[in-house]
Write a structure and sequence with these properties.
CATH superfamily of the largest domain in chain A: MFS general substrate transporter like domains
Largest interface: A-B, 63 and 52 residues
CATH architecture of chain B: 6 Propeller
Strand order of the largest sheet of chain B: 13-12-17-16-15-14
Largest sheet of chain B: 6 strands, mixed
Order of helices and strands of chain A: HHHHHHHHHHHHHHHHH
Strand content of chain A: under 5%
Helix content of chain B: under 10%
Oligomer: heterodimer
Strand content of chain B: over 45%
CATH superfamily of chain B: TolB, C-terminal domain
Number of strands of chain B: 26
Number of domains of chain A: 2
Structural class of chain B: mainly beta
Number of helices of chain A: 17
CATH topology of chain B: Neuraminidase
Radius of gyration of chain A: 22 Å
Number of helices of chain B: 1
Distance between the termini of chain A: 5 Å
Distance between the termini of chain B: 72 Å
Number of domains of chain B: 1
Largest sheet of chain A: none
């Protein structure tokens, strides 16, 4: 494992944190809860729009399916590079809250943009900006979560954040459809309400104290890091010196991040998108159409409920173990879907499998990344990890779609199951078996 | 910014957002009062007779009537029906109404088959959101096209159409066109990206014309719902609509890059195409009012145009869509 597991150092870090926050501190840091709230409101805002957007574009604006496809592509893939750039910018400025605030605000303003334009080009541009906003805010937000939490509770902190985030993502579409049912065809009203929720999200962010600007915490953390890494000092940034691209590379080079990025990329390449899994499920069970949206709700519910327990477990038994377990569950799910398993088991298996998979991997990967990266480049490092995963999953979707069209869905599943098996083996070797440092024992 | 000012700003922004949400909900819920001149849902159904013009309400002034059936008799009298639909078609004593079945947790739709008294005789769930509806001249068969792949939870990326033919008397589906055998130049062809839309019935049993989209082609196909077979006829024809005398097909064609739709009329015998003088790009399945006149919906209004393209389109009715002359 990457995080400090030496019991003495652990005890010291705990004591230092307890002293800073005093006794009776909450379950997770206040900053984590506030960022969770910001994400919750922002997700309500964005998901209520993306839920009704197909209806709006096709039925009200009269866009054709092809144009909608273009729009959807923009919506899905627009944020990867913004994330990387602004992860670095946030590190360089050491102002995570402000950079995240720009991202959240941009997405909020985009909801008003939807009120202003009804042209295809206009809507496409607004959606692109919205996704760029998401790219801008993700890395600094995760950096703030990691910097405001003690090393041995990173998994829990990210678990809490992801649970709140997912809660918003589930409420959003319900709210959007409820508003649409109440006031048919008043799409602009829904965009206005969506803007209001985004505004609340930005407002909550104002209450966050940027951990990068907290001198007390910084001093304590530096002292802890110095103690913990006394045996093998990590490259450290000169105080006051601005981070450069070369500097970031140098700081990240000797960390376990590179291995983690490669692993995340490989696993992402072997991950079949949820939608394809549901389609496969539909193929086997011939589900009624109205059940389809409930599959997403079911998976998200399990993710939401399990995110915190999985995060806590990862802090206790080791993040790499829980992370690997998550992908093992995914592989098992592929095999169940491939096999002639009993039909009545397929639905619960898929929902539970996917929910557990997300709970064990999403926040836990961010925690793994946080523990692997020095503080000064936390944003850049987490952005690299996120971008690698995102790009790989995007590529995987294209590949799976192409395989589906050419050799059929069964073969596509077999190919991806084998690929995931290989990637999982690599994960076990790199994360669990290969001893990183003499001082840090696995687990 | 000091902490104090940040807290102040937080309170101001949150208060503003909550106030807007509350005011919006109050205005839409309270201000959405039923118009006393409109029949409420479940009101007496109207009788639909030959020669009537059937439409769907798109009057923004009366949101509660949105989507309701509008029946205009030959005497010009306008009645509001009991059914609420996204698309509707009626012929030969039978109708199909593509209607919202459920709003939550996500909108779902169904095809409601109904008779001349607006009595629903069968309900069949459809995938996706309604796009086109048609009934055969004898009222024996109906067809629906829906867009699939579009709500927040379901995002397989691709957006496709699903088209299905119904046996009205039996009140059941006769299967999706995607499962039909496709024949082009005498050979069976298959492709993953086949999409069908815009059925128009010929009047000979279960035979119909429709569009088959694949790659960059938009084929006019002629098919039979009893033999589950379609044959490619020509390229560049979307949303065909057969004239009452069966000699011509009104359709939309893609022109230019990025493309715009333009309505045309194809003479089936001479294969001559006549462009209709509409300057906007309109997405509708054009309808024949009689053998000389076509009608279509644009921006919540209906316009009519002569089939020979001799005169520009002129406004016909406002606040309605989905024109359909009952045959």
């Amino acid at each position: 494992m990457y995080q400090v597991q030496d019991s003495v150092a652990l005890l010291r870090a705990r004591r230092g944190f307890a002293a800073a926050k005093q006794a009776g501190r909450p379950f997770v840091a206040r900053t984590v809860l506030l960022l969770g709230l910001t994400s919750l409101f922002t997700d309500i805002s964005s998901e209520m729009v993306s839920a009704i957007l197909p209806l709006y574009t096709v039925h009200v604006l009269g866009l054709n399916p092809f144009q909608y496809g273009v729009l959807n592509g923009i919506y899905q893939g627009g944020s990867a590079f913004a994330r990387l750039i602004f992860g670095f910018v946030a590190d360089r400025m050491a102002r995570y809250r402000e950079v995240a605030g720009i991202g959240y605000s941009l997405s909020a303003i985009c909801k008003l943009g939807l009120l202003a334009t009804t042209a295809f080009g206009g809507i496409a541009a607004v959606l692109l900006l919205d996704r760029i906003g998401k790219g801008i805010r993700t890395a600094p937000r995760d950096a703030m979560i990691s910097l405001s939490s003690p090393q041995d509770e990173l998994g829990t902190a990210f678990g809490v954040h992801r649970a709140m985030d997912t809660c918003g993502a589930m409420l959003g579409p319900l709210l959007g459809f409820a508003l649409l049912a109440m006031t048919p065809n008043e799409y602009h009203g829904i965009f206005l309400i969506s803007f209001c929720f985004a505004l609340i999200g930005v407002a909550v962010l104002l209450l966050v104290d940027d951990p990068a600007r907290d001198p007390e915490r910084l001093a304590a953390a530096e002292a802890a890091t110095a103690r913990a890494t006394a045996a093998e000092p990590a490259p450290k940034r000169e105080p006051g010196a601005r981070l450069t691209l070369g500097g970031a590379r140098a700081l990240l080079r000797d960390t376990p991040l590179a291995g983690l990025v490669v692993i995340a990329f490989l696993l992402g390449l072997a991950t079949i998108g949820d939608a394809f899994l549901y389609l496969q499920l539909d193929d086997r069970l011939d589900l009624p159409d109205s059940v389809f949206p409930l599959l997403y709700v079911g998976t998200s519910s399990i993710f939401m409920v399990m995110a915190v327990p999985a995060g806590r477990l990862s802090d206790r038994v080791g993040r790499a173990k829980v992370f690997t377990l998550g992908y093992a569950i995914l592989l098992a799910l592929y095999l169940v879907l491939l096999s002639g398993a009993r039909a009545d088991l397929l639905l619960p298996c898929t929902l539970l499998g996917l929910g557990f998979f997300y709970a064990c991997t999403d926040g836990v990967l961010a925690a793994l990344g946080s523990a692997a990266v020095p503080e000064g480049v936390r944003g850049t490092g987490l952005a690299a990890l996120g971008t690698a995963t995102g790009l790989a999953q995007f590529g995987a979707s294209l590949a799976f779609g192409a395989l589906w069209a050419t050799v059929g869905v069964h073969t596509a599943f077999v190919v991806f199951a084998i690929a995931l098996g290989v990637a999982l083996t690599a994960t076990v070797v790199v994360l669990l078996l290969r001893p990183r440092r003499p001082a840090a024992s696995a687990g | 910014m000091t902490r104090r000012r940040r807290v102040g700003l937080f309170i101001a922004m949150t208060a503003l957002a909550v106030a807007v949400i509350v005011i919006y909900l109050a205005v839409t819920v309270l201000g959405n009062d039923e118009d006393p001149t409109l029949p409420v849902a479940g009101a007496p159904a109207v009788r639909i007779a030959k020669g009537d013009l059937l439409l769907l309400d798109r009057d923004r002034e009366h949101p509660k009537a949105w989507g309701r059936l509008v029946v205009i008799g030959r005497d010009g009298r306008r009645r509001i029906g009991a059914l609420t639909c996204e698309r509707v078609a009626f012929a030969g004593g039978s109708g199909i109404c593509l209607a919202k079945a459920r709003s939550l947790p996500a909108p779902s739709y169904e095809a409601r088959l109904f008779d001349a008294g607006e009595h629903v005789t069968a309900k069949i769930e459809v995938s996706g959101t309604p796009s086109r509806a048609r009934v055969s001249p004898d009222g024996r068969y109906a067809a629906s096209t829906t867009f699939v792949g579009g709500d927040g939870y379901t995002n397989p990326g691709a957006f496709s159409t699903r088209t299905r033919v119904y046996d009205v008397h039996a009140g059941r589906s006769m299967g999706d066109l995607e499962d039909y055998t496709v024949i082009k130049d005498g050979k069976v062809i298959t492709a993953q990206d086949f999409n069908f839309w815009g059925v128009t019935f010929t009047g000979a049993s279960a035979q119909f014309y429709a569009t088959l989209g694949t790659g960059r082609h938009h084929y006019l196909v002629r098919g039979d719902a009893l033999t589950h077979q379609v044959t490619v006829i020509r390229d560049g024809v979307e949303c065909p609509s057969l004239s009452p005398d069966g000699t011509r097909i009104g359709f939309k064609a893609r022109v230019g890059t990025p493309f715009q739709w333009r309505f045309h009329v194809l003479d089936l015998k001479s294969r001559k195409e006549t462009a209709l003088p509409e300057t906007r790009s309109v997405d509708d399945q054009i309808a024949w009012l009689d053998d000389k006149t076509l009608a279509y919906g644009v921006d919540e209004n209906v316009v009519q145009v002569p089939a020979d393209g001799s005169a520009p389109p002129r406004p016909m009715l406002a606040g309605v869509t989905n024109p359909n002359r009952v045959r």
